[in-house]
């Protein structure tokens, strides 16, 4: 019997770090764990990072789990058949919602004899949550992105508040209690996937009986689609060559994201997330990320040795038009080349907006 653990949550919430940290913790408890990443595009930074830490990794690309349901099932089957795993953790695209009806219930209905589906977990960034709450308190009309964020919380069996190490300790209890009062049907836990503090609370929440979520989520698919369409998605591959002897790959990545952050702040563009890797080969790579306009890049993994050449991959999800993101990233790459002494050769820009979500299945609680 396979245990399937579904994760959802807005872009930049830390789902991949949560998935990796919990997978390692479960392995220490004797489980054989595999993970599945998911994205609207291809060439995923997250998959690269996860494969550096875990052996059994798959990805579902070109759409979210609800629209690529059979691909998800095939990935689970392949992992269990080839690697003999007993637990699969899967993170959905950060702009996805309605997973209870389109993924969780169909898995239980059609594959329940071979699979135990754990409680649906929504991973939350406390600073992102605070920003949406602040807009609501000001009486602003609910944006489509805020609507999407709220739907992700409403359908959660477990609300997992990540990144508690990034907020003052005195604010934690107030935040968690507020979520418990607002979403009374959910189990609310707080932790930091980066430090590991509180991760055992999340593991305990996954062991609770899941059942069928009682809420029949009333999703306005037009608003859902509009929220996704606010974001331009870029997955781009870039070949880097040192103009002189060698260059600092981490500094190159930091410059790209810092320039993109400054551009987004200047133009009022919300950053869902921007991530990049700079791979020098032989398992050596830098990985950096950005989740807020105007903020500095976070260095998740540093490449200390200088490089003569490298392959960079950029994943960016920004609330703007695709051509605007193409220009912004091209300008940021040009600036990074000048700062670090590199020559870059990029694939054609691949920024796009997701198509209208059309789930393969949608089961109400009665229909499940």
Q: How would you summarize the topology of this molecule?
A:
Elements lengths: L1 E7 L6 H14 L4 E6 L6 H7 L5 E4 L8 H15 L3 E5 L7 H13 L3 E3 L3 E4 L1 H12 L6 H11 L3 E4 L7 H14 L4 E4 L8 H8 L14 H9 L2 E11 L6 H19 L3 E11 L2 E7 L7 E4 L7 E10 L3 H19 L1 E5 L22
Parallel strand pairs: 1-4, 1-5, 1-6, 2-3, 2-4, 6-7, 7-8
Antiparallel strand pairs: 9-13, 9-14, 10-11, 10-13, 11-12
Structure characterization notes:
The chain is of the alpha/beta class. It folds into two domains: 2-225, Rossmann fold (3-Layer(aba) Sandwich); 232-346, Alpha-Beta Plaits (2-Layer Sandwich). Helix content is 38%, strand content 23%. It contains eleven helices and 14 strands. The strands form two sheets. Strands 1, 2, 3, 4, 5, 6, 7 and 8 form an eight-stranded parallel beta sheet that branches. Helix 2 (45-51) links the parallel strand 2 (33-38) and strand 3 (57-60). Helix 1 crosses helix 8, helix 6 (144-154) crosses helix 9 and helix 10 (249-267) packs across helix 11 (322-340). The radius of gyration is 20 Å and the shape is globular. It starts with a strand and ends in a 22-residue tail after the last strand. The model has no long low-confidence stretch (mean pLDDT 93).
Q: Which keywords apply here?
A:
six-stranded antiparallel sheet; single chain; 11 helices; 368 residues; 2 domains; alpha/beta; Alpha-Beta Plaits; Rossmann fold; globular; 14 strands; eight-stranded parallel sheet
